[in-house]
Fold this sequence. Notes:
With 310 residues, the protein is an alpha/beta fold. It is 51% helix and 14% strand. β1, α1 and β2 (31-34) form a beta-alpha-beta unit.
Amino acid sequence: MEKIKIGLPKALLYYKYKDLWTKFFENLGCDIIVSPNTTRETLENGKKFVLDEACLSVKIFMGHVFYLLGQCDYILIPRIACLKKKEKVCTNFMALFDLCRNTFDQKFLPYNIDVKKNETEEYAFIGMGLQLGFSFKKARWAYWDAKSYEEMIQERRIEKQKLELAKNTPSIKILLAGHPYNLYDNLLGKEIIAYLEKEGIDIFYSDCYDPKYLEIDYKKIAPKNYYTYNKEIIGSISFYKNFVDGIILITTFPCGPDSLSNEMIIRNVQKPLLTLLMDELNSDTGLVTRLESFLDILKLKKEREEEVHE
């Protein structure tokens, strides 16, 4: 029997849930096709299928979906409304499945999470397994095993970053903060990471953060924020800010939740901060110039602090 082919667009929530997704489908014996790294062509293709007002991250996502058309039996497009009671996520994550279904001639595989309606992640994945023709028992096991794997990988990443942070090195330390799909996308954050690495900067990432501290940490900066994914960024900044020399905040235009969260971060975090608002017209020269200036400020500040301690 030929294996079911599942397409994963390498954009948006892929960067947060890729370990969970890939392990779940591997456990079910499916083949997985991941779209390649984002290029300018990916963005240009995605722009054809959404309004100009859509955020850059959604435009990139649609380009990845376009690439996968016809290459797989299903393309995974989760529909997420609410992960925690009294919280919400960006409306894009509720609308993406319907947007893709009404735009492309392709079978899409959704899973629905809305804890306000008692639609949990576990039962969403079980439902997805049932839709693919697997038994309840196998789908449940596939999810539990994948969830354990995801948690193990994340715990290792967090522990590794803590160990790196504890090293007493003379290098500038920077927290790169933002949604994982902005931090690690080839067209967005990867260029920034490459530049910082070339300059010998120690980079730390906001998504390597232990959520058990979240309810305490995020309230120190934005206690009224109710966007789940933004709370995680804010909590991470609150936790790491005293261990780094500066923070680079990456966001894409025009993200509504980020615009609210960024304002609270700028107001309440007493630490050198560079906000990079990425749009489709970004020039490499302008980006490098801003990064150079920010690093110069951090180096000068560090030198003066060392002189005071001598």
